[in-house]
Amino acid sequence: MNECCRELRIKLAEAESRIKALEKRANRARVWNRYKGMTPEQRLLGKVIKTEGCWVFTGFVDRQGYGHITGFGEKRAHRLSYVIYKGVIPEGFHLDHLCRNRACVNPAHLEAVSPRTNMLRGTGKPALNHQKTHCKNGHEFTPENTWLYWRKNGYYNRFCRACWKLK
């Protein structure tokens, strides 16, 4: 009797897992059908809260703060918004959020810029170092007093010639 009950429990657990898998597939189909026939703009705006400035994307937002939307080629919501309202993003260009809010999809807050411009407009180390006008010892970074060491990745390090001579 005990052996028979165990077999029934195993079969019941297998059946329950199959039912859950089928329900999951059915839910995916319902979600896909909900968006069937919608334009990319309708789908995007259905996940956006418009404030006076930013249009905040309320769908899935990744760890970096960018909104994601699927089904229309572009995965990031701000890129889809730019393509819908302003046109194609030029090859080799990045989109810069002028409002500094990564979840914003307002096309007025997006500008296509070169990767270098995008990096220098940011708040990271490269942008902060680029804004410096003097070395840590107070010497001004002028063309005559600055030595540029170009690295293999296309970026450069900047050194003060006056400090280099003192070493």
Describe the model.
With 167 residues, the chain is of the alpha+beta class. It folds into 2 domains: 38-123, Alpha-Beta Complex (Homing Intron 3 (I-Ppo) Encoded Endonuclease, Chain A); 132-166, no CATH class. The protein is 41% helix and 17% strand. The protein has helices spanning 2-35, 40-45, 77-85, 115-121, 125-131, 161-166; strands at residues 48-50, 55-57, 60-61, 67-68, 94-97, 110-113, 146-150, 156-160. The chain has a two-stranded antiparallel ribbon with strand order 1-2. Strands 3-4 form a two-stranded antiparallel sheet. A two-stranded antiparallel ribbon has the order 5-6. A hairpin with a 5-residue loop joins strand 7 (146-150) and strand 8. The longest helix has 34 residues, at 2-35. The protein is elongated. The relative contact order is 0.08. The mean pLDDT is 84.
For this entry, give a set of tags.
single chain, elongated, two-stranded antiparallel ribbon, 167 residues, alpha+beta, two-stranded antiparallel sheet, 41% helix, Homing Intron 3 (I-Ppo) Encoded Endonuclease, Chain A
